[in-house]
Amino acid sequence: MSWLDNAIAFISPEWGVKRAAWRSAYKEIRNYDAGNGSRLNAGWSVSNVSAEMTDRTSREYIRARARDLERNSDIMNSILWARKRNVIGSGFQLQAKTSDENLNTGLEKLWKKWCKARNCDVTGVQSLNQILRMAVVRKHVDGGILFVKRYTRDGMIPFSLQMIEVDELDTMHMIPGNPKHRVVGGIEYNEYNRPVGYWIRQYQIDGISIADPVYVKSDDVMFYYSKRRPSQIREMSDMAHTITRIRDVNEFVTAVSVKQRIEACLAVFIKKALPVSGIGRTNTPVNDNRVEYDGKRLSPGMIQEMNAGDEIDVVNPTGQSADATSFVKLHQKMIGAGQGISYEATSRDMSETNYSSARQGAIEDELTFMEEEEQILSILDEIYETFVISCVLAGLVSIPQFWENKEDYLSHEWIKMPKKWIDPLKEANATKTAMNFGIKTYKQIAAENGTDWRTQIDDMAEVLEYASEKGIDLGGVLFDGKLNEEREEQKEYDTAAGGNSNAGDPDAAGADGTDGRQGSGQREG
């Protein structure tokens, strides 16, 4: 308090209290609640440091916990499967975009062959689609994965991929190859924090670390991870902000399961009315026909004779378990929201959706998955460019002046295989309306359906030609238009009408000012 406040409080304590209260309220207005150090936020300890300083201490531990949930949690796997289904699905189709159609066809055939496991994978185990699916899962669990280009003679071309986990980055190596560079977390950076090389720890096939790390230039490595801050240089698990909630759900479900099993138990205790042994010498039974209860089990419809004087106390746990459904459902919604996807995409529960809500949810999910697709496609672009160069060096394709016009011959597009429609009739009508109003072109619609528009037109032309040879007209069936006979009749009618601009339009007004329908009737008469 200032001297003025003290003076006012001395003259009038009431005025002093009011002044202090209003000053406190004024300070509350000026400040953020999130920055308030009051009792409610007293235990909230925070700090502002670089991303690497924040992540370094928790990266390994979070990765280990995420992997544990991947092995043991159904909710965790529902998130991972949703990502894998929607980001990769059945894969991406290549469309070479050079000016030579024959070259495009040849490159696409070679690419399809190279994508097989024995050609694209240095281990010969996974196809390219399987590698991409694994990469999406590893990015969300481990935080990232490394695509390493290997140049071997085992496949159809001297180029294949090796997948390396982030654990294999040698974090203990500190000496850079260039004195001006720095090595942090197994990655060597230049003065602009750009990766120039990776120090890969070597392992035996059983996982035991051996020898010194191997240096791989950054030109041959594609590090697939999400960068969220400018100061971030290494990966962090994408599940970091939701794994605690996933574990809470697992613990809750386990507790409810144990409680239900306890409530289902029925225990029976026998109260002895007589001593266990007879009078006198111990362990000498009074009656050899006495029934022993050790190891007895209850069974439906059982009739059992008891010893004289014995009584039964039944322990039957009662009570009702907590409503686990609403708890798990709420948490699954929060977990999905934390990962940017809807509850329906993770739980596969469509009981609360209609067509509109399902459609809106699918659109929002698609925007989330598009970010992952963008990263995957950038990696695929580099893989394809290396593939084309390898094909040229191996002599599989002959391209004159390739090195002078390399960018033109590397031009390509990726088409993702389409998803199934939610309501085919409504989707088809919406697509037709969009094309009729010029909102979408036929090329865009074909791409959305995972096909090339030229190929689709060629296929339709082939079908129509074959049907025509068999005497079947499929024009009206395929295009919802007039059949050839109807078009011929309309053409003959227009010719017979003498070229009148109103012929064939019964609603148009006649040339003499009479109703067009009467004129049409007179002409027909």
What this model shows, in words?
With 525 residues, the protein is α+β, with helices and mostly antiparallel strands. Helices cover 46% and strands 12% of the residues. The chain has 19 helices and eleven strands. It has helices at 3-11, 13-30, 51-56, 59-72, 74-87, 101-114, 117-120, 128-142, 243-263, 324-338, 343-347, 355-394, 406-409, 424-436, 442-448, 453-469, 475-479, 484-496, 516-524, and strands at 92-96, 144-150, 160-165, 182-184, 187-189, 195-203, 209-217, 221-225, 267-271, 311-315, 412-416. The strands form four sheets. It has a four-stranded antiparallel sheet with strand order 4-5-6-7, with no helix packed on it. Strands 3-2-8 form a three-stranded antiparallel sheet. A two-stranded antiparallel sheet has the order 1-11. Strand 6 (195-203) and strand 7 form a beta hairpin. Helix 4 packs across helix 5 (74-87). Mean pLDDT is 81; it is low at 501-525.
